[in-house]
Amino acid sequence: MPDSPRLTLPGGFRYRLCMTKPDRTAAWPLILASASPRRRELLRRIGVRFEVRPAEIPEERDPGEAPGAFAGRLAREKALHVARQTGPEPNRWVLGADTIVVLEEDVLGKPDDPQHAVELLSRLVGRSHSVITAVVLTDTRTLETRSAEVASRVTMRLASREEIEAYVAGGEPLDKAGAYALQGEGRHFIQRVEGSESNVIGLPLDETLALLCQAGIET
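^ thats the sequence. predicted structure below, dont judge the formating
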């Protein structure tokens, strides 16, 4: 949607408006296959109506699996898992997503505990890393999927061990990939973001909206 106007949301996020007229026969309620409060908030910001049904699937990277392929597989598995559980009638759409932090070829997941969070963040400060989010939209009737993958580049400033430990002690990074939150106190470590900021939070708004528009889901 290169010529679509853009809307600025609270917090400075901008996304392209859907200019296609939705097919109201296809405007079935959306199911978000994620328990992430960040994704729920981002969807609400663009006015999407949805319900939440988290997908409980193993999130283990296969040997030799490329980071982007890993995120894409998990997003697809989440969406398909919930779509199969939901069943074909009434026809609905399921949105699955997975966000990973990649430093060189290492995928940094959520920390196991505070000490692990300190270790993860210590690897990131003073360097640049990638944040990749794969988004998959699945039709519950046909199980056909539409997908997008977005990568952003995040550069962090140098930080002392004391700063990192104080941040981790506040509890914010303990359920975040890479052990930081751009939308929270973790922003104080961020020097620069190249690409989508909402992607770094967990859901690239432009690309997600494009998938919803293509599916005829009204926003």
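Residues 31 and 94 are 5 Å apart (CA to CA).
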